[in-house]
Amino acid sequence: MKSRWYELKNKAVALRKRGFSIGKIEKNLGIPRSTLSGWLKDIKLSRAQKSKILEEWKNDLKKARKKAVVWHNEQKRKRLEEAEKNAKKTLSEINLKNPLFFELALAFLYLGEGSKKNTETAIGSSDPKILKFFLVGLKKIYKLDINKIRCELGLRADQDPVKIKRYWSRILELPLVNFKQVNIDKRTEGIVTYPYYKGVCNLRCGNVAIQRKLVNLANLYCEKIISKN
Question: pLDDT by residue (tens digit) across 108-128?
């Protein structure tokens, strides 16, 4: 019994003899690869034809990879947009004027990033946004004079302490004189630091009462939520 594509066999054979790959013939004529393999198995290709097919395969592979990258990037962009949209929706339903929400958020930030062992309120991060949020909380909720915050930097061996002090002073809007102590990680000697990395900045104030309240607030909230489930 002849297959439904039998009338195209001569075209397929002619294309193969001209040096077309089975994949291209499949695409041009719409004939299944399994059928083509049977029809064309005895056709011998020249070395030049084989080389051409190999080169075309490599080029097609490069194009496919580029398309895959574009597709994956587009899908990622859509997922990020969806995540931002959902986050904005949740944020719109929170009363940001209520200082209790702010204090609770500050408590969880401190529970994750702040110092819990020392008898002081202190937090360290390489992310300026986290430290700015912390400073705003100290100022608005606890009425602290943030200009009195003590600052300590943890830097890599190839970083310039003077330049990094100026960076953190400017970005956090704190007096340069507040940046007194600098600790250099000697383990990083001989290793080049990425330009965007500005070390770790630690903010310290002597008021341990704030630390205790933030830690207790976050822990008690967790316990209350857990107990209800």
Answer: 999 999 999 888 999 999 999
Determine contact, residues 122/151, Cβ cutoff 8 Å: no
In a 3-state reduction of DSSP, which class is residue 202? Answer: strand
Residue 81 lies in a domain: no
C-beta separation of 205 from 145 below 8 A: no
Number of domains comprising the chain = 2
Spatial distance between the Cα atoms of 24 and 16, rounded to a whole number of angstroms: 9
Is residue 37 a part of any domain in this protein?
Answer: yes
Domain identity same for 40 and 123: no
What is the pTM (predicted TM-score) of this model?
Answer: 0.73
**202: nearest Cα among 229, 163, 174:** 174
Same domain, residue pair 119 and 202: yes
CB 210 within 8 Å of CB 122: no
pLDDT digits 0-9 by tens, 21-70: 888 888 888 888 888 888 888 888 888 888 888 898 899 899 999 999 99
CA-based end-to-end distance of the chain: 68
Residue 8 has pLDDT above 80, yes or no: yes
Q: Does residue 73 sit within a domain?
A: no
Helix (H, G, I), strand (E, B) or coil at 182: strand
Quote the distance between the C-alpha of residue 78 and its chain's center.
Answer: 15
Range of the domain at 186: 99-227
Q: Strand 200-205 and strand 150-156: pairing? A: antiparallel
Return d(Cα 58, Cα 64) in angstroms, integer: 10
